[in-house]
Amino acid sequence: MRPRLCLVYQDLASFVRMDAEILAKYFTVEQIQFRGPSDVLRLARRISTAAVSVSWFALGHATAAVAISRVLRKPSVIFLGGWDVAAMPEIGYGAMVGRSRIRKTTWTLRNATVVFAVSETNRQEARRWTNREVITIPLGVDVDYFVPGDGKKPVVATSASVTHEATIRTKGLDILFDAARQIPQVRFKLFGRHSSEMARVLRVLAPSNVDIMGWLERSDVRSTLQDAAVYAQLSAHESFGLTAAEAMACGCTPVVSDRGALPELVGDSGFVVPYGDAAAAASAIAIALETPKGPKARSRILQRFPLALRQERLLRAIEGLL
After folding, report:
1. What average pLDDT does this structure show over 291-299?
2. What domains can you pick out in the chain, each with its CATH number?
């Protein structure tokens, strides 16, 4: 009989779903979407029949899962996501801007059996709040699905989910729009989950050479990345940059800000520009369109960030707890 895992999350993001699929190959995975205190009893029941509790993001649901696991003497695993251990009050970003969350998250990190980060940058952020060991296991890209297409167009793709106005600055969309104005001959495509209100705001802010595409299914994300010659991510903070990595696997030349884990992801396979410098971003995009580095970008993903490598590391870590 396969060991049971209890996977706890607030939102079934694509990277959470990928981990669930990986773990389900080797374990019986009981998923629970935690919405608040009313779910504590249900969570306790699930953990009581599981060998290990696994929580994505060190937020309230993880605090509950770790506390219950301690009472039941079960191992607990935390996967950090980025926002949960970030504190950037200058742009109002990060759970650790709030003092009450600092106390809860510090306790959660200290009492979990194992804590995993998705990048070295993410690990260093977590180490601001705890002196315990935090293990880096980068996210992975399905390199058999995200592959180059038949040819590239002079298009710049960007992904950003925008549900409130502060996200525009966090994701560097104000900078992207300024850069787009400086190279009006270049077409930009912005996709992601946008609330109806924010979709209207984005259309007002964006210049005419930026298409606001909204939510795309996975196959449409792939075709958009296969068409685009350049992928731009000019964020103020990224704990990894999964869509940027998928774009690189599709042969896009990355142009990214020097914030968070983006330089760690891109290395020398693209262009890293100072955060907030729209002129530098526009210049880098223009150069990237003329001298693409797509093959080098894909090679970096194949070597450092394939999904198979994350799977191998995850299984080794979880099996070590059983």
Report:
1. 96
2. 4-140+306-319 (3.40.50.2000), 153-304 (3.40.50.2000)
